[in-house]
Amino acid sequence: IGHPEIFPLVFTTKTQEIFNCRVDEDVTEENCFKLIKKEDIIQDLKTRATISDFHPIKKVVLEYPGEELLVVFDAKFQYGQNFYFVASEEAKENLLKRPETAEEKEGEKEEENREETLEIHPYKPPVHKPWVSLGSEKEVEEESVKDTVIKIKYMISRVRKKFGAPITFTDKNASHVKDSYFECTSYQDKTFSIKILEKDVGIQMVPKVKEASTQTKWTYPKNAATQYFPRQLSNEEKEESLSSEKLKEFLTSVHLRMEIALQQNEIMNAFFDDWKALAEDENSSGGKPDVYLKAYQSFTDLRYFKNRTISCVCWHPTIYGIIAVSARDQLSYKEQVNLSDKSLLQQSVILFWSFFDSMHPQLLLECPEDIFCFQFSPSDPSIIAGGCINGQVVLWDISQHEEKLQNAKTVADGIKITAVNTVNASILNILQYIYMSGGKNGTEPTLVRYCAVSSIQYSHKKPVTDIHWLPDYFEDNQMAATFDKRAETRVQLVTCSPDCSVLFWNIPATKLPEQLSSEKVREGEIFDMPPDVPDTFKHLNLCWKPLVKMYPYCFPEKVQSLNTLEVPTKESPYTEMSNSSSKNLKVLQSISTDFFVGTEDGEIIYSDWKMEIESDSAKPHTQKDTIHTETINTLQRSPFFKDIILSVGGRNFAIWKEGVTNGPILQSSCSAGRNTAGHWSLTRPGVFFIGRDDGNIDIWDLLKKTHEPSHFQNISESMITFISPWTASSKQHFLAVSDDLGVLHVLEICQTLSHPSRNE
């Protein structure tokens, strides 16, 4: 505050070494100034970019007028950091030529005054004064060394007669002595016994170095064998051994242990290698395997998906790299339910994208309203069924355009792009440029109109939130009875909606009977269709009605006076035609007709669409469980275990087992954010993906952890709206993830998440 030209900086050790301003070496508290050339700082910004310590003041450095910049070491952290940068030439000069302090000036003035006032005094000899003791002699006495130990006096004497006595020396052979070594050993003289009180001794240990070698004697190897004969007991010895008390006691003592050992061998495999099975998924290096989702491609459209969110994503079942996407307005769930009949501000379509052309959609499916969900027919991928936000069900036939999808290739249209930034803003800018230039060249995708749409009167009253094709080996009639079905084509749909209803739809034969084709067409009961629309389902358009309508979860406050089961009246001859085939078919009693339903209140309902006649009413058996606190957005069966179901909604998820009535078998704890989507892995039974409202994908691997995700990865800055995996080949697996901004992200799944372990 008060110094706008000073900018505090944090210099890391790396930066101090680069610019030779190391603390306590190059700069100190006394010598705290360091001049750095401007071009060196600019070069550091280019080299280290955002990790450079000068990055926060990059703009100030570039605008600095001088060639050298002043950096000051702030030892006392006066400005909050260990260095600060001076951003003006004037401040730099003032700091480098700092004026003398006030104390120094005062000291100089005092010296000048003393010199001016100096006077000459006459010499006076010193006067002797008596010495006054202040206690110093006591200190000297205490510090002086005094002998406190009594000194020992030694007197050495000898007998007088021994003085000057002759001495005789003799020779001795050293070989006669042990080890050929002769010494004059010392002996203790008892006359003198000196007691040592304290002694300083130093010992140095030196290891001995010795060189040695050993030579082993190698012998020629020989093969040897030994033959022995078993010892045979005689019959008398055998009888004596078997009837002995010692054998009976032994068998009695080991009987229980032997029985337990035999049972254990039957229960478990004693030769199973637990260590090998434990480490089979680890890398050869012994480290943890890499778990990641690699970005493969991104798709978005400014014309049809601008300010819209992706509602559903489906991969084409047979054509490689083709993915279909639908979108709706960015509305909350409550607004979707209450404003389902609003007028559309822009055209609603389903876009078909291809891996070979990420800039232009390959196909457009026209929709009467925003599509909430859609599915390809498993038996005929050219037939697509979708559910609208106003409750209607739509059918498309793209058989005439499959060849175009199979031959999709990248078209440059004269636009060369050398690099594409994967950030959403950059993609949108590039796509906007391509659309502005591509429209002139006429690269508009083909628009396919829908073949049939259900009757508004008999459709759902609220958005269709989910749609499924029934299996191709059975079909239902109007009494909810399940029949054997010989034709391997799926002709029945089931849909659900927040209006508390589940509808079963029957798709009659695409070709009309000969006796009806001439009469009904002339009578005008089959509506005329535009020439570019396939006539596959033209007999169903605007008159298609559900085969069975049931309410497995009626709420009194939402639905008033509704029957448990509603059957539409047989006004159309095509309904009779589709049901007449069931007269000669066998009723399947072993087929399960149970299903799960998730509600907007977070309830999981287990119901049966087959009626049980009790007295005068037909009621399906239902069971409710409330685990989630918000709307359930995902309810999916495991692709490996048909009785295992994953439910996602609100701040948690749960895994259910069909037949277990006391709740889920696995329930997650409440997370900080909301879970918005989920999907099982198609290749690993213990792996599933959870999308969150913060743009992250949680990867759950139940073999590793059950209390938290084993890995998570950020995909987008907005909420995840849909997840759809796809297996292209045994070595290539993809995961399509859509967000609330209308962007579709295609990610490649790593080998760890796509290859199951043994016995998973």
UniProtKB/TrEMBL annotation:
Q: Where, subcellularly, is it found?
A: Cytoplasm
Q: Where is this region: Disordered?
A: 96-117
**Entry keyword Transferase:** no
Q: Which GO terms describe its cellular component?
A: inner dynein arm
Instruction: Cite the InterPro entries for this sequence.
Output: Dynein_IC, WD40/YVTN_repeat-like_dom_sf, WD40_repeat_dom_sf, WD40_rpt
Task: Mention one GO biological process in which this protein takes part, according to its record.
Answer: inner dynein arm assembly
List the SUPFAM superfamilies hit by this protein, alphabetically. WD40 repeat-like (SSF50978)
Which keywords describe this protein according to UniProt? Answer: Cytoplasm, Repeat, WD repeat
GO MF annotations for this entry?
Answer: dynein heavy chain binding; dynein light chain binding
User: Is Zinc-finger among the key words of this record?
Assistant: no
Which PANTHER family does this chain map to? Answer: DYNEIN AXONEMAL INTERMEDIATE CHAIN 3, DYNEIN INTERMEDIATE CHAIN
What is the protein name stated in its UniProt record?
WDR63 protein
Organism source for this protein? Haliaeetus albicilla (White-tailed sea-eagle)
